[in-house]
Amino acid sequence: MKYGVEKLAKDLGIQAASVRVALRKAKVKKAKDGSYGWDSQKDYEAVKSKLSKKSAPAPKKKAKKKSAAKKTTAAEASAE
Question: Where is pLDDT greater, at 14 or 63?
């Protein structure tokens, strides 16, 4: 195979094991020899595009502001 998991991992900037997990999740079929790989650049780019859309980071959520904790004085603490 001209294009394989290692190249895909390098292009996506993730580990090869993570690429294989993503390929399984995306239900990409393995080649006849039982491994992931593509002979044409067109097929490779299609898979790469499919995975890069799925592996795009989720938008960040805005953090809620927490109110400051109430400070107690020593006198208040002993009264409790």
Answer: 14
